[in-house]
Known about the structure:
- Helix 5 (about 100-120) runs antiparallel to helix 6 (about 125-145) and helix 5 (about 100-120) runs parallel beside helix 14 (about 340-355).
- The protein starts with 12 loop residues before the first helix and ends in a 9-residue tail after the last strand.
- The strands form four sheets. A five-stranded mixed beta sheet has the order 1-2-8-5-3, with helices on both faces. Strands 4-12-9 form a three-stranded antiparallel beta sheet.
- Helices cover about 50% and strands about 10% of the residues.
- By secondary structure, the chain is of the alpha+beta class.
- The protein has 14 helices and twelve strands.
- The longest helix is centred in the middle third of the chain and has 31 residues, at about 215-245.
- It has helices at about 15, 20-30, 45-55, 85-95, 100-120, 125-145, 155-165, 175-195, 200-210, 215-245, 250-255, 260-270, 300-305, 340-355; strands at about 30-35, 40-45, 60, 125, 275-280, 285, 290, 295-300, 360, 365-370, 375-380, 380-385.
- The chain has a single domain, classed as CATH 1.10.630.10.
- Bound molecules: protoporphyrin IX containing FE.
- Protoporphyrin IX containing FE binds near residues 226, 233, 273, 328 and 342.
- Protoporphyrin IX containing FE binds near residues 78, 226, 267 and 341.
Amino acid sequence: xxxxxxxxxxxxxxxxxxxxxxxxxxxxxxxxxxxxxxxxxxxxxxxxxxxxxxxxxxxxxxxxxxxxxxxxxxxxxxxxxxxxxxxxxxxxxxxxxxxxxxxxxxxxxxxxxxxxxxxxxxxxxxxxxxxxxxxxxxxxxxxxxxxxxxxxxxxxxxxxxxxxxxxxxxxxxxxxxxxxxxxxxxxxxxxxxxxxxxxxxxxxxxxxxxxxxxxxxxxxxxxxxxxxxxxxxxxxxxxxxxxxxxxxxxxxxxxxxxxxxxxxxxxxxxxxxxxxxxxxxxxxxxxxxxxxxxxxxxxxxxxxxxxxxxxxxxxxxxxxxxxxxxxxxxxxxxxxxxxxxxxxxxxxxxxxxxxxxxxxxxxxxxxxxxxxxxxxxxxxxxxxxxxxxxxx
Length: 392
Ligand code: HEM
C-alpha cells in the first residue's frame, strides 16, 4: 500500500471495527481522494456521491462502455444503465407493485414473533445468524414465491464466496469464486422459472417474460440479484440497527413512538451498504479534481450520510430526524428496488423485539465482517430476557 493510502485502509481492523472516524477524516481533508491500491476515486461528500449516482451517462455501472468487459454472471439490471436498463427496471417495479404487501407484512409479524419466541428458550443466540438471516430469507422467499433454500454447507460456502467478492477491488483473489457463486445462484433461480411458478415475483416474471427483450442470462441474473440483495442486505441492516439501539437504551422509547422515522435514521446512521462503485465515461471535473474516462469512482454512502453539509448534528443518532435525505438506499436509476420490503422488516422486527422483550441485551463480544462494501456483524450474541407482561 502506498504512503498516500494510509489515509484510507478499508480493511484495517480498526476501520472494520469503526470506519466512521476515517470517513470523517477523508471528507474533511480530501473528499475526492485518489486511492492508489484501488485505482479509484473515493467520494465522501453527500453532494458528490449524489451527483455520481444521478448521472449514469457520466458515471456508469456498465463498465463495457469504457472497454472493460463484464463477466456473464454479472450482467443484470445492476450492471446495465439507461436506456438498456430501463425496460427491465420498469418491469421489476411493476412486478413489485403486483404483490400483496399487506399480506407480506402480516406474515412477517407472525414469523418474527414465532422465531423470537423459539430463540428465547435458548438463552443466548446469535441475532444475525439465528434470527435476522432466517427471517429475511423467509420474507424474500415469500415475495419471490419460492421456498427458502436449504442452508447447508454448500449454500453457506457459496454465500461466503459471493460476500467476499464484493470487495474484489481490495482482494482480487476473491473474484473468481464470487463469479462461480453467482452463476450457481443464477442456475438455482433459473430452475424456479422453468418450474412454472404460481406465486410472487417469479410467477410475475414467468407470466410476463414475453414483454421483455433480454437474454435468459440477464433475466435470471437480475432475479438472482433481487433475491440475494433481498436477504443478505436487510439481515445485516437488522443486526446493525439493533446493535445501535442496544448501545443507546435511552432511545428505545423514541424508537417505538415512531418506528418508521426511527428506521430511516438507522439506515442513515448504521446502514449496511457502505460503498457502491461506478466508472467514469468522459473526462470531467468533480469536487475540484480532474476525473478521467475509465477511472473507477467509489461513492462512500456511509460517509455521505454523515456529511455536515447535508445533515444537522450528523454524528448524532436522532430517531425523530425528518426530513432525512440519506443515501442508504442509493439514488437514481439503481436505487434500491426493495426499500419498501426493508422498511417493513425494520418496522416489524424493532417493534416486536423491543415491545415483547424489554430486557433484550447484547450478551457477548461483537465481531464485524471483514468487508468494506457491506457492513455487518459476523458475531452478535444476544439474550432476550423476560417477556413483557403486556404481550399475550
Ligand atoms: C436495509 C436494507 C437495504 C438496504 C440498505 C439496501 C441498499 C441498497 C442500495 C444502496 C442500492 C443501490 C446500489 C447501487 O446504486 O449500485 C440497492 C440496490 C438494490 N436493492 Fe437494496 N437494500 C436493502 C434491501 C433490499 C431488499 C430487501 C431487496 C429486495 C427485496 C433489495 C433489492 C435491491 C436491488 C434489486 C437493487 C439493484 C437495483 C438496480 O440496480 O436497479 N434491497 N439497495
